[in-house]
Amino acid sequence: MSQKIDFSNWTCPLPLRDQPNVVMGHGGGGKLSAELVENIFLPAFANNTLVKLADSAVLDLNGAMTDGARLAFSTDSFVVKPLFFPGGNIGDLAINGTVNDVAMSGAQPLFLSAGFILEEGLAMDALGRIANTMGAAAKAAGVTLVTGDTKVVNKGHGDGVYINTSGIGVIPVGVNIAPHQARPGDVVIVSGEIGLHGTAIMSVREGLEFETVIETDCAPLNGLVAAMLDVTKDIHILRDPTRGGVASALNEIAKASGVGIVLSENKLPIPSAVRSACELLGLDPLYVANEGKLLAIVPREFADEILAKLQTQKFGERATIIGEVTAQHPNMVVAKTGIGGTRVVDMMIGEQLPRIC
Amino acid sequence: MKYLQEFRDPELAEKLLNEIRHSVMRPWTIMEVCGGQTHSIIRNGIDQLLPDKIELIHGPGCPVCVTPLEIIDKALAIAAMPNVIFCSFGDMLRVPGSSKDLFRVKSEGGDVRIVYSPLDAVKLARENPEREVVFFGVGFETTAPANAMAVFQAQQQGLKNFSMLVSHVLVPPAIAAIMESPTNRVQGFLAAGHVCSVMGLSEYPPLAEKYHVPIVVTGFEPLDVLNGILRVVKQLEAGRAEVENAYERVVTFDGNKAAQAMLADVFATTDRAWRGIGVIPNSGWSIAEKYRAFDAEYKFDVSDIRTIESPLCRSGEVLQGIIKPHQCGAFGKECTPRSPLGATMVSSEGACAAYYNYGRFVQLTAA
After folding, report:
1. Measured between beta carbons, which residues in chain B are less than 8 angstroms from residue A3?
2. What is the CATH superfamily name and number for domain B1-308?
3. A39 — pLDDT class (breaks 50, 70, 90)
4. Which of B10, B142, B309 sits opposite A339 (nearest CB)?
5. Nearest alpha-carbon partner for A13 in B94, B285, B37, B138
6. Half-sphere exposure of A100 (CA within 13 A, CB side)
7. Which listed residue, of A85, A126, A250, A343, carries a Cα 20 to 30 Å from A59's Cα?
8. How many residue contacts between A and B have a Cβ separation below 8 Å?
9. Rounded to an integer, what is the distance from CA A121 to the centroid of its chain?
10. Cβ contact, residue pair B90, A282, below 8 Å
């Protein structure tokens, strides 16, 4: 080596955050998604209900509801590719996604709408299968699909079918679940194994085959919510960790409540197939989407009873305590690692990207 | 998982940590060369478990960070061309060029796709004979064999519409450059295990001897990293400077001969610019003369553009361990994970981002 390198000028690239156009990361459920809501939508629609940024809006309808019960209202759009995947299809997601968003405010979901954007050329058979799936999923969740809309776009302008669903439900009197209510000492419960849905989709997209087929965990969670409310109405927060995964949902909770959250990595229920797939794909299961799991932030005194109750339920058998809320390091989620270290579990910027090495 | 869980065992980790604690007598500065090792160190919190006397410096082994701006700009220009399908590993998409990144090119209509293997890009070329398929071939010796194989297969299959934009970099010249730097503080290296699984160990004894520096080939799981650190520390304390293989289940002295033959056939050694560092002689590979038809730099007319990097950012000194992240004037002010000035603040495993996040964490828990 004859040439001397001047390291004092050594700099590295930084990702661009101020995009003049929408990029895919704006839909990833990470920081870019949050910025889109904060900078574009909140200023345009400013009101006291939306600003809470819960999974569903909570409305008291100026006392029009009897007994002081309140209404939960939510909407979600589904653009998954492929339309059919192990364990379900876009129809399951469209029903359960909105049912779960409504349920996360403690409501019993009642009625759903469905809007379909169909791409010219979509096989009628595929549409029929999706519709039948939605019917069955609605029945299983105990909701009625009462209104809808259909539009068709030119071939090449959609991925077969996009679906939007909205839903309403009734929040029982005395139930007050909202994103800002985590308190130091609270316990973090997850209702089952994490990372299944996102891994199932990625495996199909990448043509990966494992010893066991990884299936989506797509499921309605309103039954779990009702069971938990049977134990106590004093549940502080419920979230379904869909895109962005457990890490993003907990970061949002930490921020909204101004608290810290500590996870125990060796308590995270990660199926071995998901763990293997994530190793192969260069992903972190904490950031992978779930479609049939909820996170509950509950007072410590009720944690064991709630956990026991969840474990008696069909979709809660593998429920487990994964961490706790602390007054330390507010707005931050950290994990105790398997070998006893600590790492910060930050929010993603955009989408989770497979690493080169 | 076989061969993974065994190397994440908490009790064995504690044993190794104890042995490290007992072995360290003096302060030592050790560089882990590979970005994958940095990731593992941060991901498992290894840096916090080590005794204070051991300082880890995160090395230049992140291909995303060291790929030169000129190549990124060429990638952006090619990806924006109307008939091109531009394929890349996922995390290259967010690396900014002079004015945009591949995500933005995609949002503006460019056909940019994430693939897991360069052979997927060859397949795309076969399936889309009317389109030009370009693969972004970056990385160290680890990713190079598959890229060489893709070029070789494209030639075997007679594909005229496949090409590769290559910016491969090599570890041994980087180690030499670091040791030659007048401000160098590195006293021992964890060499990149997967690089050595391809190339073998023969390049390292001359480096260990010339610079009197221990080089321990190290894997990526927590026990691998701890074992690598322990063996470097033992050498340093004993005044030895040898090449050791602490990743024997993967790395042999000769490496992967078939891969080396493929590399020698498809690539030629070249001077390579490292982003933010400058040109290091003979530190990279480009596509050899006889495969020039598959070299995207020749196939497409791409012009070079220069960028202006922030003069505030002192990530170079951070990467060398000359200053701690918080000693940079921009740290936590102009430069945060929200709006980073340098790569060390970009990813959660970057030295500055880790320091920023963990520093906040420690400060708050201590208060």
Report:
1. 180, 279-281
2. HypD, alpha/beta domain 2 (3.40.50.11740)
3. confident
4. B10
5. B94
6. 27
7. A250
8. 218
9. 31
10. yes
Cα separation of the two ends of chain B: 40
Interfacial A residues in 322-341 facing B (CB < 8 Å): 328-330, 332, 334, 337-341
Contact B342 A14 (CB under 8 A): yes
Per-domain boundaries in chain A:
67-171, 187-344
Binary contact (A343, B1; C-beta < 8 A) = no
Please judge whether A5 and B180 are an interchain contact, meaning their C-beta atoms are less than 8 angstroms apart.
yes
DSSP A48: T
DSSP string of B22-38, one letter each residue? HH--S-EEEEEEEHHHH
CA angle A124-A127-A130, nearest 5°? 150
Task: For tokens 């931050």, name the residue.
Answer: A332
Give A-chain residues touching B275 at CB under 8 angstroms: 11-13
Question: A351: which strand partners?
Answer: none
Q: Which two tokens stand for residue B96?
A: 């900014």
Q: CA of B157 to nearest chain A CA: how many angstroms apart?
A: 23
Q: How far is CA A333 from CA A284, A286, A323, B65, in A?
A: 15, 12, 10, 26
**Token pair in block for residue A240:** 């379904």
Would you say A220 and A100 are in contact if contact means Cβ atoms under 8 Å apart?
A: yes
State the Cα–Cα distance between residues A238 and A221, nearest whole angstrom.
11
Predicted local confidence at residue B318, as pLDDT: 72
Contacts 24+ apart (CB under 8 A), B74-77: B74/B165, B74/B296, B74/B297, B74/B300, B74/B302, B74/B304, B75/B102, B75/B136, B75/B165, B76/B100, B76/B101, B76/B102, B76/B105, B77/B300, B77/B302, B77/B303
B116·A350 Cβ contact <8 A: no
| CB-based contact A299:A194 (threshold 8 Å) | no
Closest CA relative to residue A86, chosen from A242, A273, A319, A281: A273
Which of A263, A339, A344 would you mutate first to test chain B, the one with the most B CBs within 10 A? A339
CATH classification of A67-171, choosing from 3.40.50.2300, 3.40.47.10, 3.40.1380.10, 3.30.1330.10? 3.30.1330.10
Residue B190's SS3 state is: strand
Q: How far apart are CA A330 and CA A336, in angstroms?
A: 16
How close B69 comes to chain A (CA, Å)?
8
Question: Tell me: domain A187-344, CATH 3.90.650.10, correct?
Answer: yes
Dist CA A312 CA A319 (whole Å): 10
Distance CA B205, CA A121 (A): 64
Query: Do the Cβ atoms of A25 and B103 come within 8 Å?
Result: yes
**Closest-CA residue in chain A for B365?**
A328
- Cα–Cα dist A134/A161, whole Å: 13
Delimiting residues of CATH 3.40.50.11740 domain(s) in chain B: 1-308
Residue-level pLDDT, tens digit, chain B, 367 residues: 566 778 899 999 999 999 999 999 999 999 998 888 988 888 898 988 999 999 998 887 777 777 877 888 899 999 999 999 999 988 788 777 777 788 889 999 999 999 989 999 999 999 999 999 999 999 999 999 999 999 999 999 999 999 999 999 999 999 998 899 888 889 999 999 999 999 999 999 999 999 999 999 999 999 999 999 999 999 999 999 999 999 999 999 999 999 999 999 999 999 988 776 678 899 999 999 999 999 999 999 885 555 555 667 676 677 666 777 788 888 877 777 666 666 666 555 566 766 776 655 554 444 3
- Whether the full predicted model's pTM is greater than 0.90, yes or no, is no
* A304 Cβ neighbours under 8 A, 6+ residues apart: none
Residues of A in contact with B15 (CB under 8 A): none
- DSSP, res A285: G
